[in-house]
UniProtKB/TrEMBL annotation:
The protein's name: Phosphopeptide-binding protein
Species assigned in the record: Actinorhabdospora filicis
Top-level lineage group: Bacteria
Protein keywords: Phosphoprotein
Domain FHA, residue spans: 83-132
SUPFAM superfamilies: SMAD/FHA domain
Any Pfam family matching the protein: FHA
Record-linked InterPro entries: Cell_Proc_Reg/RNA_Proc (IPR050923), FHA_dom (IPR000253), SMAD_FHA_dom_sf (IPR008984)
Lineage: Bacteria, Bacillati, Actinomycetota, Actinomycetes, Micromonosporales
Length: 155
């Protein structure tokens, strides 16, 4: 093989290696930035017609809406009882996803808020992009993900 072809090939591989390194660094940076933003809560401005002082009545979750997966569009009315999710037939929300455990997670009402608990599932339960490790309060509109299925609490 001529010397010039060998040299061009070496530089081509070196360039390809650097492109790969920069892509990995960019992906890690984007994930770290998204994780840091997930913990921040931005207060909404007071709406027109709200009571003096900008206070509004707190929005309360009334529905658990499936936003992705096989059950997309399904809604469960929240009545104050715990909601269990998983592949088990006795779950409140039966998920037919290969990545869901039999008893995967549950939503429990406490003091006017809903808390998400992972029930030692194999693949984990995620609130937005963060893995749930203990009872975690669930804000309205924040996605809960179990395997390929996602949910949200809505008023």
């Amino acid at each position: 093989m001529p010397e010039i072809v060998f040299t061009v090939t070496r530089f081509g591989f070196l360039l390809l290696l650097w492109v790969f390194v920069f892509a990995v660094v960019r992906t890690i940076r984007n994930d770290a930035y998204a994780a840091s933003r997930a913990g921040k809560v931005v207060a909404a401005p007071p709406s027109v017609g709200s009571p003096p002082g900008g206070r509004r009545a707190p929005r309360v979750a009334r529905h658990l809406v499936v936003t992705g997966g096989e059950l997309k569009g399904r809604s469960i009315l929240l009545e104050g009882a715990p909601i269990t999710m998983g592949r088990a037939p006795d779950s409140t929300l039966v998920i037919t996803d290969d990545y869901a455990s039999s008893r995967h997670a549950r939503l429990v009402p406490r003091e006017g808020e809903w808390y998400l608990e992972d029930l030692n599932s194999t693949n984990g339960t995620y609130l937005d992009r963060a893995k749930v490790s203990g009872p975690t309060p669930v804000p309205l509109g924040v996605p809960i993900r179990i395997g390929r299925t996602s949910f949200e609490l809505r008023p």
